[in-house]
Write a structure and sequence with these properties.
The complex is a heterodimer.
Chain A (H helix, E strand, L loop, with lengths): L18 H29 L3 H6 L12 H9 L2 H32 L5 H10 L5 H23 L14 H5 L6 H12 L3 H9 L4 H12 L1 H17 L2 H6 L8 H12 L5 H33 L4
Helix pairs in contact in A: 1-14, 3-14, 4-8, 4-11, 4-13, 8-11, 11-14, 13-14
Chain B lengths: L7 H40 L1 E3 L6 E3 L3 H12 L2 H31 L7 H9 L6 H12 L5 H8 L15 H26 L3 H9 L4 H12 L1 H16 L3 H6 L11 H10 L5 H27 L5
Antiparallel strand pairs in B: 1-2
Helix pairs in contact in B: 1-13, 2-3, 3-7, 3-10, 3-12, 5-7, 7-10, 10-13, 12-13
Chain lengths: 307, 308
């Protein structure tokens, strides 16, 4: 499994000499790869075409004259900057909390002994079985009513209450601040660390908390960053929840922003600036893919999950 | 009893250790408790209620919402339609996606000296594309005036391609193509991990026996891959039942209700126009039941060897 992204794989029919077949396979895979990546390639090149070029030669994939005009149009027509800021905050908060809370829980599950520990682990794992479709309506009602209930509790003058409901960063992020997947992933990794580390830390009189931050976390950089990447991709791509929990344009994430931009823009069928918008939305995840393809693929292959 | 009771200090230590353990779990337990476990109950309670017309009074109606759903099934109403849409969508996307993924995984698993990172880059790339972006890009590709898809179809002799998103017959297929594309990277990665887990000596032995490539795939790769295929089947069925983003952007459930699947019906009933949250929750409960049954099949299947 670990060989999935390495080149020296020992797999189907290795030592055979078939240079002609090798060659055919190369062409086949390049062709298939290009077909799969084609929608993304088309989006990128269309975003770099001028409006006249798109209308005059719609089926030339390559731009005749390269231009960033579509990005300027998209950026001015709709508050993409604000959407990006919202998505960055939303994803940032989700990543930080998921990573932090998963580290804490995974540590308890792999190093501490206390009654009910295994039961709690199965309870947390069990949450993976509960589909989002079951929880999102009550969660929507809960979050929407939070400011009112908060004011009943703390009085009308409690200003922080208004920042808890729909159209708030709190509302956008709060249902996703913990991750059973993250707990599971990190627990697997922590369990593989040598137990002697813990014993010697105890002998040295270090507290559990100190042991966690000074020994376990530094040793688990790979697993923690993998979790961070998965959490980011999941948060950045979210659709249904941000769609229902925001109706104020200034609180939309990029994914919802591009949806409304599409329905505004399509009346003029300005596909150039629409594709520019799509590129803006997917750029952060594409960069992560190019930088961290190895960890991403490995993580998916090992856990069978996308986070 | 009295004699064997531990010294007070030790009992205290135990309590402190337990407290400390739960303190580490606390943030995760609170979030999951409030936003995953509690909604299992509140969603069910909600599904037993209805908002009275011309007022905000929610009242308890027992199983009325469920009765309405079953009546709709029997009479071929809206719920029957969304069940059918989800069924055909699953049947259309899941086998196609798995077939493509396994084919590509087998091709990718041949050891090539050059460019294998490049192939993988191109083939895996959809894993980082969101459903919203998928929807927007495919809306462009399907566009009857400037879209690429019907233009490409002219190369294979189809001069008049379908009006993908506006046609009742083609809209679901159009959504399916987009979703299969977005899922492909993930499926190939899982399938490739499965193919690479197969012990190379099987192939060596088969080669000694004179089996050709097709025989090796048919009699070694596919049987030994069956646990992976099973896993892919389950995970893809669940994903296809949960598809929402592409539908929202490509077709908005239409034309008519041609692409209103179970999730989309929940969204429309719960959030569009006059929200019928109780009725939507009843649908959510039934959908969750289907999904949980599928995942239980998965957990049972994982324990067994599905190899031969």
């Amino acid at each position: 499994m670990s060989s999935i992204i390495d080149d020296e794989t020992q797999v189907a029919a290795p030592s055979e000499k078939m240079s002609r077949n090798d060659w055919l396979l190369q062409i086949f895979l390049i062709t298939v790869g290009l077909i799969i990546a084609l929608p993304i390639i088309i989006a990128i090149f269309t975003s770099l075409k001028s409006v006249t070029d798109i209308n005059a030669n719609p089926y030339n994939i390559f731009p005749r004259d390269w231009t960033l005009d579509n990005y300027r149009t998209a950026w001015n027509a709709t508050p993409f900057g604000r959407y990006l800021l919202n998505s960055a905050i939303q994803s940032g908060v989700i990543v930080i909390c998921q990573v932090l809370f998963s580290i804490l829980a995974a540590f308890a599950f792999s190093f501490l002994k206390f009654p009910g520990r295994d039961l709690m682990f199965y309870v947390i794992l069990g949450s993976l079985m509960v589909p989002f479709q079951l929880t999102f309506i009550p969660n929507f009602i809960f979050v929407s009513e939070l400011p009112r209930n908060c004011m009943e509790l703390f009085g009308e003058s409690a200003e922080f209450c208004s920042s808890l409901g729909a159209n708030s960063y709190f509302g956008l992020t709060v249902p996703f601040l913990a991750s059973a997947f993250g707990v599971f992933l990190l627990r697997q990794f922590f369990l593989a660390l040598p137990k002697e580390l813990y014993d010697s830390a105890q002998i040295d009189g270090a507290s559990n908390f100190r042991f966690l931050w000074q020994i376990v976390v530094p040793l688990s950089g790979g697993a923690i960053s993998a979790l961070g990447i998965f959490a980011f991709l999941g948060a950045w791509s979210q659709y249904l929840w941000p769609l229902i929990i925001t109706n104020d344009q200034s609180m939309r994430t990029v994914q919802i922003g591009i949806r409304f931009f599409l329905f505004d823009q399509e009346r003029g069928a300005d596909w150039g600036s629409l594709m520019a918008g799509a590129v803006i939305v997917m750029l952060p995840t594409l960069v992560i893919f190019l930088v961290a393809q190895r960890q991403l693929v490995k993580g998916i292959a090992m856990t069978g999950l996308k986070g | 009893m009295q004699n064997s009771s531990p010294p007070k200090g030790k009992g205290m230590q135990k309590v402190m250790a337990a407290l400390e353990g739960y303190l580490y779990l606390l943030p995760t337990l609170i979030i999951l408790g409030v936003f995953v476990f509690y909604p299992i109950v509140s969603s069910f309670n909600l599904s037993l209620t209805r908002v009275a017309p011309f007022g905000n009074q929610t009242r308890y109606v027992g199983f009325e919402n469920y009765q309405r759903l079953f009546t709709e099934i029997l009479e071929g109403g809206d719920y029957w339609n969304s069940l059918k849409v989800s069924f055909w969508f699953t049947l259309g996307t899941v086998p196609t996606g798995i077939f493509l993924a396994v084919g590509l995984a087998i091709a990718l698993s041949y050891p090539l000296k050059r460019l294998s990172w490049f192939h993988r880059l191109l083939i895996f790339i959809p894993i980082v594309i969101s459903s919203a972006v998928t929807g927007v890009i495919f809306r462009f590709l399907y566009n009857p005036a400037v879209g690429y898809l019907n233009y490409w179809l002219t190369f294979v002799g189809i001069e008049e391609g379908p009006n993908w998103l506006a046609s009742k017959d083609w809209a679901l297929i159009a959504v399916s193509i987009a979703v299969v594309w977005r899922q492909l990277g993930f499926n190939v990665i899982i399938a490739l991990a499965g193919v690479q887990n197969i012990d190379g000596t099987y192939y060596e032995a088969a080669k000694v026996d004179g089996a050709n490539m097709w025989h090796r795939i048919r009699h070694i790769t596919l049987p030994l891959l069956s646990p992976t295929l099973f896993f892919l089947l389950i995970i893809n069925v669940i994903n296809s039942l949960q598809t929402f983003g592409e539908i929202n952007i490509l077709t908005d459930g239409g034309p008519g209700q041609a692409t209103t699947n179970l999730v989309y019906a929940i969204f429309v009933d719960g959030f569009i126009g006059t929200p019928l949250r109780g009725f939507a929750s009843a649908q959510a409960y039934l959908l969750a039941l289907i999904i949980v049954i599928v995942s239980i099949i998965q957990f049972r299947g994982l324990g067994r060897r599905v190899n031969y």
